Input
Amino acid sequence: MNQPAMNSPATPAAEKSRLRRQFRTLRLAALAEAEAQILAVAQREIPILLPAGQRLGIYWPLAGEADLRPLAALDLPLALPAVWGEATPAARLIYRPWRPGEPLAPDHCGIPAPLASNAPTPPATELHPDALGLLLVPALALDRRGIRLGYGGGWYDRLRAEPAWRAVPALAVLPAACVVEDLPCDGWDLPFSGWLDERGLHRIATANIASL
Output
């Protein structure tokens, strides 16, 4: 599969917008063959990486994202993200504990999340960063510096701008076809600890991956 060209002279914002369109198509096509192996890699590697007593942050998959919810079968303590807040300026990304079968409700972005609105019991507690041992985050693309291309909402950027969350190792999850040498980068783009694709787990030497 040919990867999108990275040599456009456009501004970072315009270039990111262009690349998002291209990588949505590329990722969806690549995932058809890669998803089963991405899950197999995660099932093999993640139990070794996750510190005892800490939770694994996964995500509720959207179209084109690898579904890692079967990791629940490994009896790992899990957490799901939720964009929480009534108004956009106040909304922020949080993590809450989750187990399969527990009730979910759409978050601020319409993604299923463990929120209080349809829970029959008191809502799950917002987790502090030290409760999470590893975050798995979907990506449209990633470069070899660990710079992630997401959907443009900035939720993970703002979360990881907080020092305590930045200290939690985070791996991008995507097909190998969407890993490139270089992506446009803004000042708020923070490198990930590495990435997970159908070829294995890849660490980035310059990232904060002491616990990986």
Remarks:
- Residues 54 and 133 are 5 Å apart (CA to CA).
- The two ends are 30 Å apart (CA to CA).
- The first helix runs from residue 12 to 49.
